[in-house]
Amino acid sequence: MKAGARQLIYKKGIKDFTALLALYSIDGIFSELRAKMSADSLDRSDVKAQAMLEEMPLNELRQARGLSQKMLVDVLHVQQTSIAKLEKRTDIYISTLRSHIKAIGGELEVVAKFPDGSFDIKNFAEHVNVTVT
Question: What pLDDT, on the 0 to 100 scale, is given for residue 85?
Fold first, then answer.
């Protein structure tokens, strides 16, 4: 072990090399940085992280669910290029989006939000559930 590594281990009070590796992995660095943040900064960071998760594009959502485009091809019985195009589109039929979301294990909900309440739109013609906020 090099002298610099020994000094770092001594300075950090780390007993073994595995602990040193864990500390300087991405997770270790992230954990160390979060430990230095104030409670207010942690709260703001958590709110931003949650907002980012709630606004995930289709391709990132698929990847976060641990699925490949090839897996969706097998489920949806379409070509891989169709999946790639769908994930890049900004204007999609609701039925196509519903099928895609179902294929990755989810359920699509359409909600119309107004100042006086939110409306869950179900099947677009059958019925509407109203939640007034």
Answer: 92
pTM value > 0.85: no
Concatenated DSSP letters for the chain?
--HHHHHHHHHHT--SHHHHHHHTSHHHHHHHHHHHS-HHHHHHHHHHHHHHHHT--HHHHHHHTT--HHHHHHHHT--HHHHHHHHH-SS--HHHHHHHHHHTT----EEEEETTEEEEEETTTTEEEEE--
Beta-bridge partner residues of 112: 119
pLDDT attached to residue 61: 85
Q: How far is CA 76 from the centre of its chain?
A: 22
Give the list of residues 6+ apart from residue 48 with CB closer than 8 angstroms, or none. Answer: none
C-beta separation of 121 from 112 below 8 A: yes
Could you give the count of Cα atoms lying within 13 Å of 2 in the half-sphere of its Cβ? 3
